[in-house]
Amino acid sequence: MLDYSQVKTPCYVLDENRLRRNMDILSDIQKRTGVKIICALKGYSFWRSFPIIGEYLPGATASSLNEARLAKEEMGKEVHVFAPAYEDDEIDQILALADHITFNSFSQWARFKDRALKAGVSCGIRVNPQYSTVETDLYNPCGKFSRLGVTEAEFKPELLDGIEGLHFHALCEQDADALEGVLAAFEQHFGKYLDRMKWVNFGGGHHITRKDYHREQLVELLNNFKAHHPHLQVIMEPGEAIGWQTGELVTNVADIVHNEMDIAILNVSVSAHMPDCLEMPYRPAVTGADLPGVKKFTYKLTGNTCLAGDQLGDFSFDKPLQTGDQIIFEDMIHYTMVKTTFFNGVRHPNIGMFDKEGKFHLLHEFTYEQFKEKL
Question: Residue 120 belongs to what H/E stretch?
């Protein structure tokens, strides 16, 4: 058991032993299939643990210039990049860092093709297999009107010169059977182009390290695909499978108030520090707690900002809560921690103002160092 009394709250806490357990599982899958598994920074960017991850995995995948730089500097292995759109003032810096880059559209490919090929980066196109079993629209990359990936109707084989890989992503914390369905759709729509490719990226959302994940089914599925396409390097890029159940967000009760029910105000904010718990909404497990009414004492757990909706929901406990009691939110090291910071490493808007003469002054431009120091 970990001694959380050592923790100054609020604090995200990683357990190296649990992280290595996940790495052992992923490493085993790699050895048995020849597939490359890389760490998706959008789902796990605890960069101080990158040297550990680098012992097991060949690299990382980034969704922005900031993430690409973080992967190169702190893991120092392969850097794969995908973003829905690249910008002219960042693309050359990204290409200088990347080993693989995936374009989201043929228009982006045409715009940056010459620069990418000159940089010697292996280039791919993201495709949309138009099949997914993700139930939540917010997290469904293949949902109706998705901007992510090229559909078969919009695919332009005449523009494939220079393209070495195809990339799809259609899962969200799912099992091997979901990948099997997606893969069948992918081959149906885009299989005729695979002979022209060097690699294929199966994206993320593979919940490989979850206790009940069907890993033997995954191994069989991957080996069957490799048998049919032996020339292809298969890549998978999970994020949550890296950080799955490797750590907690440790908080304390700052105050307890009553308004028809007992309400605990914590020394952490749901809206500021756990935004996925509002946008999904995602309800994390709380150590020692249960659903409201199951245990004797029920409280609404809330954040410490002035936003009325800064609240997580109702939980029940065996004993009454007291000011100073520790509240531990489980499994918060992957997406929750990432969304506390500059999610995807995207550039934050600059800050400026016009003076009374109408002259614009740029007051602040956010930097890579500010992105990194918040992780």
Answer: none
Whole-model pTM?
0.92
Is residue 364 exposed (0-12), middle (13-18) or buried (19+ Cβ within 10 Å)?
A: exposed
- Say which CATH superfamily domain 247-339 falls into: Lyase, Ornithine Decarboxylase; Chain A, domain 1 (2.40.37.10)
> What does the pLDDT look like over 187-221, one tens digit per residue?
999 999 999 999 999 999 999 999 999 999 999 99
Enumerate the CATH 3.20.20.10 domain ranges in the chain, comma separated. 16-243
The residues that bridge with 163 in the sheet, in sequence order, are 123
Burial of 373 (0-12, 13-18, 19+ CB in 10 A): exposed
Report the amino acid identity of residue 148: L
Q: Any idea which fold 16-243 has?
A: TIM Barrel (3.20.20)
Give the chain's end-to-end CA distance (angstroms, integer).
26
* 8 A C-beta contact, residue 141 and residue 148: yes
Start and end residues for every CATH 2.40.37.10 domain found in the chain: 247-339
In whole angstroms, give the CA distance from residue 316 to residue 312: 13
DSSP letter string, 23-85 = HHHHHHHHHHH--EE-EETTT---GGGHHHHTTT-SEEEESSHHHHHHHHHHT-SEEEEE-S-
